[in-house]
Amino acid sequence: MSNETATAEAAGTAEAPPAPEPVPHGLGASLPPADARAKTEGTFPYAADLWAEGLLWAAVLRSPHPHARIVSIDTSHAREMPGVRAVVTHEDVPGAPLHGRGKADRPVFASEVVRHHGEPIAAVAADHPDTARMAAAAVIVEYEVLDPVLDPEQAFEAEPLHPDGNLIRHIPLRHGDPEAAGEIVVEGLYRIGRQDPAPIGAEAGLAVPRPDGGVELYLASTDPHTDRDTAAACYGLAPERVKVVVTGVPGATADREDQGFQLPLGLLALKTGCPVKLTATREESFLGHAHRHPTLLRYRHHADAEGRLVKVEAQILLDAGAYADTSSDALAAAVSFACGPYVVPNAFIEGWAVRTNNPPSGHVRGEGAMQVCAAYEAQMDKVAKKLGLDPAEVRMRNVMATGDVLPTGQTVTCPAPVAELLRAVRDFPLPALPKDTPEDEWLLPGGPEGAGEPGAVRRGVGYGLGMVHMLGAEGADEVSTATVKVQDGVATVLCAAVETGQGFTTLARQIVQETLGIDEVHVAPVDTDQPPAGAGCRGRHTWVSGGAVERAAKMVRTQLLQPLAHKFGMSTELLQITDGKITSYDGVLSTTVTEAMDGKELWATAQCRPHPTEPLDASGQGDAFVGMSFCAIRAVVDVDIEIGSVRVVELAVAQDVGRVLNPAQLAARIEAGVTQGVGIALTENLRTPRGLVRHPDLTGYALPTALDAPDIRIVKLVEERDVVAPFGAKAVSAVPVVASPAAVASAVRAATGRAVNRLPIRPQAAVVTGQ
Predict the structure, then answer these.
(1) How far does CA 613 lie from the centroid of its chain?
(2) DSSP letter string over 440-488?
(3) Other CB atoms closer than 10 Å to residue 747's CB: what's the count?
(4) 718 pLDDT band (50/70/90 cuts)?
(5) Residue 5: pLDDT band by 50, 70, 90 thresholds?
(6) Is 477 exposed, middle or buried (CB count within 10 Å of its CB: 0-12, 13-18, 19+)?
(7) pLDDT tens-digit map of 69-111
(8) Residue 403 pLDDT grade (very low, low, confident, very high; cuts 50, 70, 90)
(9) Which of 166, 650, 669, 733 has its CA 20 to 30 A from that of 542?
């Protein structure tokens, strides 16, 4: 300390230290995630970090063939290996031999036939992971290799691959006049590739036998109660004897783990009486878990001379892979949103989901809606080109609004500010053109030292308008339960909504802070001893679980305020809680929450259940959805038309969000969704020649990196609250995934003049000859 400072302090003239930054608080604040520090420091407990005394290690033997008849399985050599404690096959499954998220049609272990590359045949538990892997490889399986059915179009005529047949679902949607016709007609055939969710971190789990003959499963589950019920049925146990404890989930853009990965764990733990751990390799993850449905789409759009849509005809074929999974749900979304957020008076859509011998397909963010968005937006570009109109203007003449009717006959009752979103991205200033100088070569497609020449680069601007439903459809019972407890100035939230990175735990803290004025809020770990909250997908926990937390917190608030209101002869509505203080409207009452609690413990449990929906009928009609979310994206790309390389320069995003609950978290979710969409558009395609997964690793599967991420400009967030949703908020992460691939493809079409009818966009599709 200097003499001057000491003298100043002695004289009382030293400057006061700066006031601490206010801590973010309540809804609308950018409250940081509670687990952010642990994740960045590497101390967050993921499933792969688990350990138990007497631990055994598991390994799974998987089919090397996409389709084969199993002649025999010989486990004797594996059982005789030193260190091997158990080997299980289909013969060791004591309960239900089949499982599945949407339909129970998938065997725990293949017994008579294998239907896809990587299907589980047997599992081994040993005292060392290397021993387990060697023992699994020592299981001798004799196969009779069969010809696989790989083309979904051939599945209609092929021999049945499954006792239930090859057709999983057919939806024939009929809306309006089949004879209606437009002055112009445009057609297109489109193909969408197989995207892997590529979850961050290893898929891992631990099973621990219980003294009562049950088992505890420690998993990175996104739907623990469904996983518990499936496991209990497989093990032949009552659900209360199986407990699922959710470990740290390292991100999820789909169902986090394959149930076929989880089920062998408990079987081995029950058979050996020891804890068993299984950590999947990246190859096993690619082979086992569900992928986005590869899709074939045929479209015909009719429009009048002004570019207004008259009729849309489409055929949509989803490749479900070997088993049904959630393909029925994906097909319902694809058919229902096949025309996009546009007013279409006449629509005739045929949709099918079929089994093949390709890898399994299932829930991936924006399922069904993403595939059709790429197709209908390509069609809108064709309408604009045929009429010589601006692509944005054609879209503007057709966008839907609140009160319009979907092709399913359902009226859009939620806010649908599609025109406002489109205007926002259309009018946003375009980015500057790259300079033709050496120091800016990295701006070119291909990056520094790339093969392209600046003179071959063309810039394109394109648009994508997307829509998704936010909750389960067609009569799904969307319900969640939450408990809020308060004691000694600390609040605890108990809710089985899994934090997958979507920010639910942060939202729950904000809700309680806002309602009760308590700063310190903890969210308890999730397990199946709590009431169910449902799956962590489609951002549904913002609605149903956030709504349950809010209702429980308000019930506690009433318990807290009622004694004070009674004492002062007023209603609780005349009291407010702000920054931990309770005050009355007239200022007579002023006390702190802690003083009002007076050492008591208050708690309440509440449920949130949105209004019911109904299945689509035989003509594809019905009020099948609760709530919808919309997004408009303008893409700017640079394309080297000689070599076909594409650089996404900028994506301008406008989205209706209902209400911003956490600005930083919302922006991060939108940016992540957009980046995932760029991967779908340009690089991600899990190739399966002859039904075999090729390059099942993150070297062969091209995920976008930070260097591939474009500038993402969130130009407008429309906060028009949905009156039936808690807080009026909408889920935000899925719809940017839906719209961004279509926008990128639209921009590449604008730059090249090529049709671009396949995602991801292959270099040859962006090459322009004769220039």
Answers:
(1) 21
(2) GGGGSTT-TT-S--GGGEEEEEEEEEEEEE-S--TT----EEEEEEEET
(3) 32
(4) very high
(5) very low
(6) exposed
(7) 999 999 999 999 999 999 999 999 999 999 988 889 999 999 9
(8) very high
(9) 650
| pLDDT tens per residue, range 178-221 | 999 999 999 999 999 999 988 777 789 999 999 999 999 999 88
Q: Are strands 184-192 and 98-99 parallel, antiparallel or unpaired?
A: unpaired
Angle at 202 between CA 522 and CA 358, to 5 degrees: 125
Q: Indicate the DSSP class of residue 639.
A: E
Residue 519 and residue 25 in contact, taking contact as beta carbons nearer than 8 Å? yes
Please, is 249 exposed, middle or buried when counting C-beta atoms within 10 Å of its C-beta (0-12, 13-18, 19+)?
buried
Q: Are 478 and 725 in contact (CB under 8 A)?
A: no
Query: What count of Cα atoms within 13 Å lies in the side-chain half-sphere of residue 727?
Result: 32
Amino acid at 403: G
In this prediction, residue 166 carries a pLDDT of: 97
**Cα radius of gyration (the chain):** 28
Which of 649-665 are b and which e, b meaning 16 or more Cβ less than 10 Å from the residue's Cβ?
bbbbbbbbbbbbbbeeb
Two tokens, residue 396: 């503007």
Strands of the sheet containing 628-640, edge to edge, are 457-469, 628-640, 646-656, 711-718
CA angle, 370 then 317 then 199, to 5°: 45
Contact 517, 580 (CB under 8 A): yes
Q: What share of the chain is helix, strand, coil (3-state, %, to 5)?
A: 30, 25, 45
Euclidean distance between CA atoms 541 and 25, whole angstroms: 20
User: Alpha carbon 110 to chain centroid distance?
Assistant: 29
Least confident of 50-54, 146-150, 301-305, 706-710: 706-710
Longest dimension (CA), the chain: 95
According to DSSP, the β-strands at 167-175 and 84-88 are unpaired
Sheet containing 120-126, strands listed edge to edge, beginning at the edge strand earlier in sequence? 84-88, 120-126, 56-62, 276-279, 204-209, 215-219, 242-246
pLDDT at 400 over 80: yes
CA angle at residue 207 from 206 to 210, to 5 degrees?
145
In this structure, the chain runs to a length of 771
Q: What is the DSSP string of 169-188?
A: EEEEEEES-TT---SEEEEE
